[in-house]
Structures are given as C-alpha cells and as structure tokens.
C-alpha cells in the first residue's frame, strides 16, 4: 500500500513501512522499519535535524533518498553525469511524488507488482531529470526500487554512475554479511563490521560472479536490512559510515568502466533492487525466498515439482558415445530417476574444451543421432535434457571460421582466452538473431524437456563494432541477453531451464527470472557443499538450487552415499556420476533414496526453509529443516562435524514447528547406520529444547570413523494431533 500525504510518501509492506518526507524541496528518508500507522503529519520526524542546506563538510546531516555530486557531502553520490563541457555538478530539487500504473524497463523487473510510486527530481544545473521508483507487492515485506535518468537538457550528457537504491540511516556502525567466493567455493558467508569508512562488494567480470553475490545484509543496532538485485552483470554495493553517525547503503550496476551517453530525450533505466527489513535472520531468508518464487521465477515453474535427474558430466566428461549414454539412462531409470541431462560434448567437434563452441549441431558420429538418442531415452519413460553454452565461441569452430567478427574482441588485438574460448558479442543483433533461431530450432527438433545454459568464463576484451561507445557494453550486453532469453523461453514454454556459470558464478535474480534453476557449484563434494548451499539458501529458494549426489568415489575423507543424499536433497535434486559402475548394493541405496525423495519432494522443494542453529559456517553442528506451510509435516537434516574419538551428544533445536502440535519424529533409515530412531514430542519442546538423540552414535559403518568428513541424519516429522 502506498499513500501520498502533503509532505510524506508512505510505502507499506505487510509489516514494514518506508517513509519519505519532503522538506524544502529535498526528499529525506525519515523511516524504514516496522510498519507504522498512518498519520497526516508525523510530527515526531520534524524534531530531527532536517536540513535543506548543507552546514558542514558531510552535510546534509539527515538521511536522503539519494545523494548527489556537490551537495557538499563526502558520502557516495547516487548518480553521476556530465555534459559535453565536462560540468559534473548537480543541484537536485525534489519535484513531486505520484502513483503510477506501470513503468518501462528494458530489463527484467519483478512480476505481479502491487503499487508503484514515482519520485521526480530535477537537476537545476544540468537540467537533467532523475526518477526514483518504489514498488510494493500484495503480501510480504519486500520492496523493489529502481531509478531512471532522462536527458531533459538541450545537449548530450554522459551518465558515469547510477545506483538502483540508496538507503540512509542514523547509526554509527554497520555489521555487513555478504557472500563471496571463487569457482568451486561459491557463497562463502563473510562478515565485517565497520564504524567508519566505506565497504564495497562488487563484480567487474561481466557476470554477477562468485566473487561477490549481489545479495547482502546490513545489521544496524535495531534492525537487519537485506538487499538483492535483479541483474546479472557487473554490480556494486557500498555501505558507508560517516563520522557524523550516518550509514549510507547503495546497490546497483557497477560504475567500473561504465559510461552511458544520452542524447536529448533518451533515458537510462537501472536494474531493480529489492530490499526488506526485519529483526530476524530467519524472516529475511523467508522474505527473500518467497519473493523469488512469487515475483521472479517464471510462474509456470515457480511451484512445480522438479524432476530427479542424472547428468553425465562428472561420470564421463567428454568421453562418451550414444551407447554409453543410453546404458546410463537405462540404469538410472531402474532406480527411479526421471530425467537424463546430456552435458558438454554432444555437438560440433567437441572431444575436449579446445574446440566446438558455437557449432550447436549434433555430432552424429558420437551420439549416434541426437534425436534418436533422445527418443530412445524418452521411450524408457524418462525426460531428456541438453547442455549448451551459447554466449561463447571457440576459435576452432565452423561458426568462428564463418564469423570471426562475432567474437568479443578488440580489432587488431589478440584476445585473452579462458578455457581456450572467447565470449561471443551479444551486443551484435545479428549474433542474437542467429543464436535465438538456431537454439529454438535445436531444442524443438530434439524435443528437449530441459536445457542447461552454461557460461564458463569471465569477460575480457570488451568491444563491439555495433556500439559507438564501449562504456555501454556491460549494460547493453544484458539488455540483449535478456531479450534473447525472453524470446527463447517464450518459444519453449514447457522447457525447464537451468542456468550455470562454471557452477554458481551467475547465481542471481536476473538469470532466475528466465531460468527457474541454477547450478550452485562445480564443487560437488558433499562436505564443501554444506557451506556453499547454506550460503545460497540464505537468499534463494531450495527448488531453484541444483544439488547432486556426485564427487562419488573421489572424495577424501570418505563421505557416505547416504550423507551425500542428505546434503543434496535440499535442492533440485539429482545424481552426477557413472551410474553403470555402481554396485548392486549402491543401486539399492540409490533406489531407496529416490523413493524417499519423491515421497517428500513437495516438502523438500517448497517447504519453508530454516537453517538450524548458527549454521555450519559458524559451528560444528547444524543442518536445516523444511516445514510445510500448515506445519503438519517437516523434514530435517542434522549434521555434526564433531566426530571421531569425541563422543558427542548434540541437542538440535528445530525451528518453524507448531508449538502446540504433537509430532512423531522418524529417522530415515540409512544403509550405513544401525540405529532406529522414532519418538514423539510437542512442537514447543522440539523448537525450544531440541532433539536429544542419545541413541545415535555419530558413526557411519561404511566410512572409516576417523576419516569421515561429517555425519548426518535425516528425519521426517509428522503432526499426529
Ligand atoms: C561447467 C559446468 C559443469 C559442466 C562443464 C562442461 O564447468 O559448471 O557442470 O557442464 O562446464 O564443460
């Protein structure tokens, strides 16, 4: 609900309010927190030190909707631009606030919007107009915001930086949690507290990147704020604490090697940022996850159960043929697996990663005919999926030989190769047209049910002959990519897409908008996955996170097949190894796992997710629980890393259960544990006291106790009255 009073704009979520006050032509952000009642005039806010004129080097002292260049502030400006004389100073006036029905954006923006308010700011020096938009939604406490610069001047202007959202607060310190990492070590939770200076996370790699995910939270003394971006390219988030006790938070596209020219009348629209406020980390997670399902993921798939899949990549690499794939599919079918995903190596000349990218046609000699293979797998009663990496090109490919100018490279400069490949120039409309047509035809011809869309290198040698100004490259790349993805996914409405970028290097809401799943990491070791997945699930729904039983045989120390299952089952679940090499006993275990997963699939994929305890990143014991919306059933996995000689007897407090309900707790039978655990308890005891499982010896019989990386158990919890 949005209300505009004479001096105020009040933007309400279900239980949060954001209040903006007009004070002498400036827009102050006077409140963001727990929902307040409506008032014509909040006199309490007039008691603050609101100042329209700067009175010191860090002025204005009060939190503003956006900070600008030369308002006599040392704090980071929200928007920067200059004219052709090089003049870069602004003097913004807050003109008006109005409710609007919708807005234009060339980028994906949240679905199923509630109300939007548009604030107009006019720069008296350069005569440029800036709009700031806030959108609220029915139910939930997430607000979306973005900005727009319109060149209302009488000459060309160049935008040098533009945030999507700024929030200012009165506080002298900020405690920031963010998720950073590398290839195979994505989403590592990090914390930093600042009481001065500026802290920044960003990406400069052309993809949102594993380096810093755009999701982050900021704890101020009495509240937790959380932010994310609907954007897949370079981003920048800053948190700044001024010596005057002000905290400024900004998020948006990165101004690194960015500048954008606007002719008279032209505009630049920022990606949408989403944000919320709460007093609890659990609420933040649930708000962010629910928002993604309701307002980001394609509604057709948002609540649809995801198939149990098998992917051949870790099992075969490039070394396979049609017969091998069919054998794998047959064995997989026997244990109940529903979808076969044929990964890299089925196309062009591609027996290693030196060649072939761009040639999106069947290598018939290898596959024995892709369509024939897909049909054979389908006739087993399975679905069929295919891997592609369309934003790349190998120099050793027919496509490159025909169109060397389609690669992303600077004229007369030898481009940098990564994984022996170049990026393709998505800013070129011919490239987009060619790829869109080729891929739609390919997926239709093969009858693909599932597509894994990969992106395996960071961008370098940024240049497109199609652009007059290369400073616009990073932005226009994504405008182009998103338009392609919109066209491809619309032409194939029943195909489930999974996004991947060397694992989780483009795990963001922009990609999730088109592709309901994202591969979390190329690191499939179940121990490492504990931390990666805990990070991912802080902000993204479990049904969107690809998680496989894999790394099988390779892991040291030993991780049991049962623990691998317990870890992977909190995602869009599958297997990824050469299943034809599994023993009868292992196949029996897998069959039981698949059956158990299917039985509880709805709950595992769409139940309310809670991390248990402080989380495994911060403590030796932890895990997760998913609870049905009506709290009648739940599945929990509890994990201990405290094993070996120490006889550990942890108490695990569960979360989210109905305090007054009486539950039966049953441990999932594992092939490597002897105990049978079954007991009853009230929800309040399980939530507040915990699960006291003295009969569990934290040991697994198929792993050498001292070399086991961790032990895990899964429980089904059912309300009996
Ligand atoms: C990337 C992906 C893997 C696999 C390979 C294939 O690394 O993350 O899952 O698809 O590419 O080359």
Descriptive terms for the model:
721 residues, alpha+beta, 38 strands, binds alpha-D-galactopyranose, 16 helices, 8-stranded parallel β-barrel, 10-stranded antiparallel beta sheet
What's the number of helices? 16
Give me the secondary-structure category: alpha+beta
Please mark out the parts with pLDDT under 50 across 5 or more consecutive residues, or reply none. Answer: none
Strand content: 25-35%
Radius of gyration: 27 Å
Task: Using the alpha-carbon principal axes, give the shape.
Answer: globular
The percent of residues in helical segments reads 10-25%
Q: Report the biggest beta sheet as strand number plus sense, adding barrel if it closes.
A: 10 strands, antiparallel
Small molecules (ligands, ions, cofactors) in the structure? alpha-D-galactopyranose
- The total strand number stands at 38
Our measurement of the CA-to-CA distance between the termini, rounded to an integer number of angstroms, reads: 38 Å
């Amino acid at each position: 609900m949005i209300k505009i009073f004479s001096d105020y704009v009040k933007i309400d979520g279900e239980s949060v309010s954001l209040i903006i006050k007009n004070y002498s032509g400036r827009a102050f952000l006077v409140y963001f927190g727990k929902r307040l009642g409506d008032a014509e005039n909040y006199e309490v806010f007039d008691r603050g030190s609101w100042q329209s004129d700067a009175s010191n080097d860090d002025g204005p002292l009060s939190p503003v909707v956006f900070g600008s260049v030369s308002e006599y502030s040392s704090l980071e400006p929200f928007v920067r631009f200059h004219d052709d004389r090089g003049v870069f100073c602004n003097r913004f006036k807050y003109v008006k606030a109005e409710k609007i029905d919708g807005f234009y954006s060339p980028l994906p923006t949240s679905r199923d919007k509630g109300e939007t308010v548009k604030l107009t700011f006019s720069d008296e020096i350069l005569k440029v107009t800036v709009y700031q938009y806030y959108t609220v939604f029915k139910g939930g406490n997430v607000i979306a915001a973005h900005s727009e610069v319109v060149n209302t001047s009488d000459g060309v202007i160049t935008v040098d930086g533009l945030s999507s959202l700024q929030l200012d607060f009165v506080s002298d310190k900020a405690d920031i949690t963010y998720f950073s990492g590398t290839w195979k070590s994505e989403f590592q939770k990090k914390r930093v507290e600042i009481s001065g200076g500026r802290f920044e996370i960003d990406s400069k790699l052309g993809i949102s990147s594993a380096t810093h995910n755009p999701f982050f939270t900021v704890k101020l003394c009495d509240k937790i704020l959380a932010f994310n971006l609907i954007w897949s390219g370079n981003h920048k988030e800053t948190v700044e604490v001024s010596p005057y006790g002000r905290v400024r938070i900004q998020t948006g596209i990165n101004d690194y090697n960015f500048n954008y020219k606007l002719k008279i009348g032209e505009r630049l629209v920022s990606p949408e940022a989403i944000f919320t406020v709460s007093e609890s980390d659990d609420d933040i997670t649930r708000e962010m996850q629910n928002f993604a399902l309701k307002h980001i993921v394609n509604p057709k798939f948002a609540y649809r159960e995801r198939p149990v899949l098998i992917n051949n990549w870790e099992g075969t690499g490039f070394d396979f043929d049609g017969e091998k794939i069919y054998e794998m599919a047959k064995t997989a079918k026997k244990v109940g697996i529903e979808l076969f995903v044929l990964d890299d190596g089925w196309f062009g000349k591609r027996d290693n990663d030196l060649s072939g990218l761009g040639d999106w046609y069947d290598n018939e000699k290898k596959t024995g005919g892709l369509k024939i293979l897909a049909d054979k797998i389908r006739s087993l009663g399975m679905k069929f999926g295919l891997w592609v990496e369309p934003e790349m090109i190998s120099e050793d490919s027919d496509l490159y030989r025909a169109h060397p100018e389609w690669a992303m490279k600077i004229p007369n400069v030898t481009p940098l190769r990564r994984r022996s490949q170049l990026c393709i120039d998505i800013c070129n409309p011919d490239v987009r047209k060619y790829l869109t047509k080729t891929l739609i035809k390919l997926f239709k011809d093969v009858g693909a049910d599932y597509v894994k869309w990969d992106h395996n290198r960071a961008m370098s040698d940024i240049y497109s002959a199609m652009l007059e100004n290369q400073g616009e490259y990073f932005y226009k790349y994504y405008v182009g990519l998103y338009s392609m993805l919109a066209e491809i996914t619309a032409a194939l409405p029943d195909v489930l897409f999974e996004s991947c970028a060397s694992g989780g290097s483009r795990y963001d809401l922009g990609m999730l908008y088109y592709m309901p799943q994202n591969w979390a990491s190329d690191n499939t070791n179940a121990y490492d996955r504990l931390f990666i997945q805990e990070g991912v699930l802080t902000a993204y729904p479990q049904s969107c996170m690809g998680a496989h039983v894999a790394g099988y045989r390779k892991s040291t120390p030993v991780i049991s097949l049962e623990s691998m299952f317990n870890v992977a089952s909190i995602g869009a679940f599958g297997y990824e190894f050469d299943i034809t090499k599994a023993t009868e006993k292992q196949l029996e275990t897998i069959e039981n796992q698949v059956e158990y997963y299917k039985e509880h699939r709805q709950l595992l994929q769409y139940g309310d997710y809670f991390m248990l305890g402080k989380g495994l990143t911060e403590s030796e014991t932890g895990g997760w629980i998913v609870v049905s919306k009506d709290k009648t059933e739940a599945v929990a996995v509890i994990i201990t890393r405290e094993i070996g000689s120490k006889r550990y007897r942890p108490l695990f407090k569960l979360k989210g259960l109905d305090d007054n309900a009486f539950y039966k707790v049953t441990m999932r039978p594992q092939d490597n544990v002897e105990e049978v655990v079954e007991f009853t308890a009230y929800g309040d005891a399980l939530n507040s006291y915990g699960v006291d499982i003295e009969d569990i010896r934290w040991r697994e019989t198929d792993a050498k106790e001292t070399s086991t990386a961790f032990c895990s158990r899964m429980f089904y919890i059912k309300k009996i009255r």
